[in-house]
Write a structure and sequence with these properties.
It is a single chain. The chain is 6% helix and 49% strand. The protein has 314 residues and is mainly beta. The strands form four sheets. The chain has an eight-stranded antiparallel beta sheet with strand order 6-5-4-3-2-1-12-13, with no helix packed on it. Strand 2 (52-67) and strand 3 (70-81) form a beta hairpin.
Length: 314
């Protein structure tokens, strides 16, 4: 009996001993949204004394498309700059990237506009099956190579009325970075960023989904970003190019007659030119034998102005 007591006591001690870095967690999984949500992010530059705000971002959904048999969500980014900075993207709105996920495996995938056609690029943004000590790699539009952080601790955080899993990261020197990753929201460095980029620092100010603010920094008013965009939304909608991404068969539609179409690489090399006769407002182009996989610029000439759009060929 005494031996049995010792064995029982040993088993109890084994079960009550736990790693303090693995705290209370929830068994329910919260996937990323696929529409009707946005992230508000501020970028700071700490090469200036005390750091200064250089950009304000809003990342948001604008639709979906098919890619390699998967229905993927399309994300745009809206940018407003606080100061004139040489590293800036420029004012306005543009394509940010593409998001899809496996809710069974609890993995979120993301590719930016530059890596969508790269089949060998790691597209895993977040894996919510990781354990303490596992490595996390992030590839985004600022970096051509991956940087590693590690899971320092796993906990739950109250978001709205529900608890969600939260990772706290540490760097390669095993120092806690202060960056957290929350299920269904992303990292506190801006949803899609996990690392400071040299002197640049990103901060997630708020996250809103279906009109409900689920994450908000203190004293921050969460709302849509208003930019000094010269081209209004109505102006931008005068031209549409679809599908995008495309396998090479694309359709171009305009509210104004199309006079000429020029297609060039991102570096500015013209690869195709077409003159459109008559008053055509819609045309179809087959580029399967003309262009290799990659991102291109389409210059659409009308009587009013020239419109420039991105197109991704896979």
């Amino acid at each position: 009996m005494r031996i049995l007591r010792y064995v029982t006591l040993g088993i109890l001690i084994h079960f009550i001993q736990w790693d303090s870095r693995v705290l209370a967690q929830t068994s329910r999984y919260f996937p990323f949204p696929q529409s009707d949500a946005f992230w508000r992010v501020t970028e700071y530059d700490y090469s200036y004394p005390g750091g200064v705000e250089i950009s304000d971002y809003q990342i948001y959904f604008v639709g979906d498309t098919l890619y390699n048999g998967n229905l993927i969500s399309i994300l745009n980014i809206k940018i407003e700059h606080a100061i004139n900075h040489p590293w800036s993207y420029g004012y306005g709105e543009r394509r940010f990237g593409y998001l899809w996920q496996d809710t069974i495996q609890k993995i979120v995938y993301f590719k930016d506009i530059f890596s969508l056609t790269c089949n060998t690029c790691d597209s895993v943004l977040y894996n919510f099956n990781l354990e303490v000590g596992d490595s996390v790699i992030n590839l985004n539009c600022f970096m051509q190579t991956g940087l590693y952080n590690y899971i320092h601790s796993i906990d739950s955080v109250l978001i709205g009325s529900d608890y969600r899993k939260k990772y706290t990261l540490e760097n390669g020197s095993h120092q806690v970075t202060g960056v957290e990753i929350i299920e269904g929201i992303g990292s506190t460095l801006g949803g899609f960023y996990q690392y400071d980029m040299f002197e640049q620092y990103f901060r997630l100010n708020c996250f809103q989904q279906t009109g409900v603010v689920l994450f908000n920094m203190p004293n921050y008013t969460c709302g849509e970003l208003v930019t000094n965009i010269i081209e209004t939304q109505d102006e931008a909608e005068k031209v549409s190019i679809y599908p995008n991404p495309s396998n090479g068969d694309i359709n171009i539609q305009s509210l104004l007659p199309i006079k000429e179409i020029r297609i060039s690489t991102i570096s500015g090399v013209e690869v195709k030119q077409m003159l459109i006769c008559g008053e055509e407002k819609r045309t179809a182009i087959n580029l399967t034998s003309t262009l290799t996989s990659g991102m291109y610029l389409i210059h659409l000439f009308t009587e009013e102005k020239v419109y420039v759009k991105y197109i991704v060929i896979y």
